[in-house]
Design brief:
Helix content is 25%, strand content 24%. It has helices at 11-22, 42-57, 76-88, 104-116, 127-134, 151-163, 212-222, 238-248, 271-279, 294-300, 304-314, 325-339; strands at residues 29-32, 61-66, 97-99, 120-123, 172-175, 190-194, 208-210, 227-231, 255-259, 263-264, 322-323, 341-343, 345-346, 349-354, 362-368, 378-384, 386-390, 410-413, 418-426, 432-440, 457-458, 460-462, 467-474, 497-505, 517-520, 524-528, 537-543.
């Protein structure tokens, strides 16, 4: 069995290739094992693409397993959102949906087996005492005074823990390994703790819950996972992963392989920190378009293809690094450039009255839907005497390299005509409220029969026929590349969201559906937000254009 020829090689694929070639493994079974304590983010997308991609390329399968061992933080809402996100990214687990809670009885029996072997004990040290006994990176720990209890006593105490005869925090079950181990993880880690709260799947059946490290390796083994792929922070835990399996589970064992997690500039990947931002009111919810959550990216207008492309490009490495947000945006632009239809929209309108255009006349001009897609066709855009242009496309006293509209200057209207500014109308405070202009009827379609050229091309909409819209412009949520350094609240960008309430969009956008994506010419790519109604359209700017015209003074 071999990999997909198109799949890029990496050290994980090399391990799998060797395992298959040597006969160590006869197939590939991976898993994506989220904890249902928050929404998935772009870092999880990397793991999803990796695990499901490997299973696909090697003709194996990938399980979706919820490691639901902490009822204090887990919710059904998170499970629903995780399943939706994985499917949206383009992957399916079929019949292989599992829960660690499915194995609670088996895990309990494995713990009993450890006790019978003299390799686990019930400990009554407090959390503070346990930290003191654990030692440091340079000093060994010391044995708990409860470490040498008899097997019979530990079995009885563990059964009492299960029956709820101890209070929370009163005792735990610990592995008996080595308090002098140079790896602190191996210094008699906790395997079970008491939590007297209802579980979303098992109800009040259990009052003791297994720890992640104990649960994860055994869940992998029960499901016959061949390659247990996780991020680098679990590298120190691998000896514990292997130790537990060696004591209670027959071979072959799953192989844990660590890879570098995704760190993306100008954002945070910690679910705890993301939830803190929500609780503090910095952002609205898990699907806020400023967040790196998959639901937030989806709402902002990102596509599954762009995210998968991004995950392929960053590859799989053994060392952590920071990936620039610009790469993710580049992948998105490439996808949307090919697939998003173009539309005209004016975000900050300034009215232009074309004085020599017939009053009451409406003309329908042909406009390309997508110059990158020959099959996208064209549409008709209404043109009339009064139009809106972008306010920043006019300057009364322009600098030398400003080539857009100014008094006495001629510019091209996209798909329409050449117009020349003849007058500027101001209010009592001196603010520009209207532009007067003339048009050249011989320049229909944007070219002059006499061959004269203009340097500026402006987008526009008909004042009478355009549709009002709210437009939300997003910037980075944080002002620094790595907001994890220090208090993240100090690095929050106060200008991460700008809401424009007076935008106007072409009439062809009147009947759009939530989630539809478009390129607003010269403005960027935009997506219809779920807040949209037939009476009030709402668009999120997904990403700006690679070379945004409005930011280039030469246009």
């Amino acid at each position: 069995m071999s990999t997909n020829a198109a799949a890029p090689s990496n050290f994980i694929r090399a391990i799998i290739d060797e395992d298959l070639a040597s006969g160590k493994r006869s197939g590939v079974v991976t898993r994506f094992p989220p904890e249902p304590n928050g929404y998935l983010h772009i870092g999880h997308a990397k793991s999803i693409c990796l695990n499901f991609g490997l299973a696909r390329d090697y003709g194996g399968r990938c399980h979706l397993r919820f490691d639901d061992t902490n009822p204090e933080k887990e919710e059904l809402e998170y499970i629903r959102s995780i399943k939706e996100d994985v499917r949206w990214l383009g992957f399916d687990w079929g019949e292989h949906e599992y829960y660690a809670s499915d194995y609670f009885e088996q895990l309990y029996e494995f713990a009993v087996e450890l006790i019978k072997q003299g390799k686990a004990y019930v400990c009554h040290l407090t959390n503070e005492e346990m930290r003191e006994y654990r030692g440091t990176l340079t000093e060994p720990g010391k044995d708990s005074p409860y470490r040498d209890r008899s097997v019979e006593e530990n079995l009885e105490l563990f059964e009492k823990m299960r029956r709820g005869e101890f209070g929370e925090g009163e005792c735990v079950l610990r592995a008996k390994i080595d308090m002098a181990s140079p790896n602190v993880v191996m210094r008699d880690p906790v395997l079970y703790r008491i939590k007297k709260m209802e579980h979303h799947r098992t109800g009040d059946k259990w009052v003791i819950y297994p720890m992640y490290d104990f649960t994860h390796c055994l869940s992998d083994a029960i499901e016959n996972i061949t390659h247990s792929i996780c991020t680098l922070e679990f590298e120190n835990n691998r000896p514990l992963y292997e130790w537990i399996l060696e004591q209670v589970y027959p071979e072959p064992h799953p192989q844990q392989i660590e890879f570098a997690r995704l760190n993306l500039s100008y954002t945070v990947m910690s679910k705890r920190k993301l939830l803190d931002l929500i609780n503090r009111g910095v952002i609205d919810a898990w699907d806020d378009p400023r967040l790196p959550t998959i639901s937030g990216l989806r709402r902002r207008g990102y596509t599954p293809a762009a995210i998968r492309d991004f995950c392929d490009r960053i590859g799989v490495a053994k060392t952590n690094s920071m990936v620039d947000m610009a790469l993710l945006e580049h992948c998105l632009r490439e996808d949307l450039n090919q697939n998003a239809e173009r539309r005209l929209a004016v975000l900050r309108p300034l009215k232009v009255v074309i004085e020599n255009y017939p009053e009451g006349e409406v003309e329908y001009l042909e406009a390309q839907n997508n110059p990158q897609d020959p099959d996208a066709g064209t549409r008709l855009v209404p043109f009339s005497r009064e139009i809106y242009i972008e306010r920043e496309d006019f300057m009364e006293d322009p600098p030398k390299k400003f080539f857009r509209l100014a008094p006495g200057r001629e510019v091209r209207l996209r798909f329409a005509y050449f117009i020349t500014c003849t007058d500027v109308i101001k209010d009592a405070e001196g603010n520009i409220v209207e532009i007067r202009a003339t048009y050249d009827p011989e320049t229909k379609g944007g070219s002059a029969p006499d061959g004269r050229k203009v340097k500026g091309t402006l987008h526009w909409v008909s004042a009478e026929h355009s549709v009002p819209a709210e437009v939300r412009l997003y910037d980075h949520l944080f002002t620094v590349e790595d907001p994890n350094e220090g208090d993240i609240m100090d690095n929050v960008n106060p200008n991460s969201l700008e809401i424009l309430t007076d935008a106007r969009v072409e009439v062809n956008l009147a009947d759009v559906e939530v989630g539809e994506k478009f390129q607003f010419e010269r403005q960027g790519y935009f997506c219809v937000d779920p807040d949209s109604t037939p009476e009030r359209l709402v668009f999120n700017r997904t990403v700006s254009l690679r070379d945004t015209w409005s930011k280039v003074k030469g246009n």
